[in-house]
Design brief:
Length: 375
């Protein structure tokens, strides 16, 4: 049976690549609703063509519309979680092939994973492989900007699912699946001082920029590599005139952590930050954006099922804990067994050299199909 799946994907490798090219060329930067929805139209076409089902379109005002497709029947369901928005402005990158590599905006993160998932379901359909669970394919439009409009939809769907499969990219070079991810928190610190003339009345002012420097050093000191915690003051700005003691400053902060206990500890420390300069006021907003995806016994069991599938394909699959977050963080935090990194193999996520390895497309699609049938 496994030989049939692999042979099927190998025969259709050109078709799989053509579908991927079509989807990548339909550029979909997160903040451009028009472009994202046009890409969503392409996705609807591909899902109708290959799976014979019409996706439900979940309309949004500020972001692209989300798509939910249901294939098969059964009292239990498998959730396949994907996103089709990208970090690239239209025209910033172009689709091209060089040897065994295909380049393009979002090709690795994660349009290739979407195509592989569609073809995995299609293989089950055309090879008459029995499925006793229904499959819900969620394609969301705002993952790259925090999943603010899709999170509740994802969590609602996850609560009805036995497992969640996430075809985000595999770990670079190793092809490892992801059984753990760091969580992310985002904060904004607004600093208010007192403006004064920088020449005539310098001593009368209270510099928000000087306070900002102290706070940046404090924030950076919270990084603890042994605990897997990083704190990054990624954006900092203040003042509005060179000859005015700055009244206002802002710091935008990114935090990554390995578990919820650490997330709560860091959150408390940031929210309890104290001014260094007399007369300064601090306003702190934000908190956990994506909870950590912690490796559980159920996740371990799910990985071993995937590993068995890999063995049948001649693949030696490994697992990894990674720093970046995905929508799988949400489902894992609900206690739903979640396996990530099932997508394409390549390199350059969010970088100009973003690419996939073409010869691995049918292999990873076959792995995904086998995993669906095992589950």
């Amino acid at each position: 049976m496994m030989d049939k799946i692999f042979e099927y994907m190998h025969i259709h490798r050109g078709d799989i690549l053509s579908d991927l090219e079509l989807l990548v060329k339909s550029e979909s930067p997160s903040f451009d609703k028009k472009q994202v929805d046009l890409c969503g139209d392409i996705l609807q076409f591909l899902i109708r063509k290959h799976l014979g089902v019409q996706p439900d379109v979940i309309l949004q005002e500020g972001t692209g519309n989300h798509l939910r497709s249901v294939y098969g029947q059964g009292e239990e369901q498998i959730l396949i979680l994907t996103h089709f928005d990208t970090v690239w402005d239209v025209g910033r990158l172009s689709y091209r092939m060089e040897g065994n590599k295909a380049f393009g905006p979002g090709i690795l993160d994660m349009k290739s994973g979407i195509i592989q998932a569609i073809w995995a379901i299609k293989a089950c359909k055309e090879l008459d492989m029995p499925l006793n669970k229904k499959i819900v394919l969620m394609c969301t439009s705002d993952e790259e900007i925090g999943s603010h409009t899709s999170r509740s939809l994802i969590e609602q769907e996850a609560k009805n699912s036995k497992v969640t499969l996430v075809p985000e990219p595999a770990v670079t070079q190793t092809g490892a699946l992801k059984t753990g991810r760091k969580g992310t928190s985002v904060y904004k610190m607004t600093i208010t001082g007192k403006a004064s003339h920088a020449g005539n009345h310098h001593a009368d002012g209270i510099s928000a920029v000087e306070e900002m420097a102290h706070q940046i050093l404090f924030l950076q000191s919270l990084t603890d590599y042994e605990k897997g915690t990083t704190v990054n003051a990624g954006i900092a700005n203040g003042g509005n005139r060179i000859n005015v003691v700055a009244e206002k400053a802002e710091i935008h902060i990114d935090v990554r952590m390995s578990n919820l206990l650490e997330a709560k500890r860091i959150s408390h420390m940031i929210h309890q930050a104290k001014p260094h300069l007399k007369g300064i006021t601090l306003e702190i907003e934000g908190g956990v954006n994506r909870p950590p995806m912690e490796r559980t016994r159920q996740t371990e069991e799910l990985f071993h099922v995937a590993k068995e599938c890999g063995d049948e394909l001649g693949l030696t699959l490994t697992e990894a804990f990674v720093g970046g977050g995905s929508d799988g963080n949400f489902t894992a935090a609900l206690g739903i067994p979640t396996l990530d990194g099932l997508g394409a193999i390549g390199d350059g996520i969010h970088a100009e050299h973003e690419h996939i390895l073409i010869d691995q497309l049918p292999v990873r699609a076959a792995l995904f199909a086998k995993l669906i049938t095992k589950l």
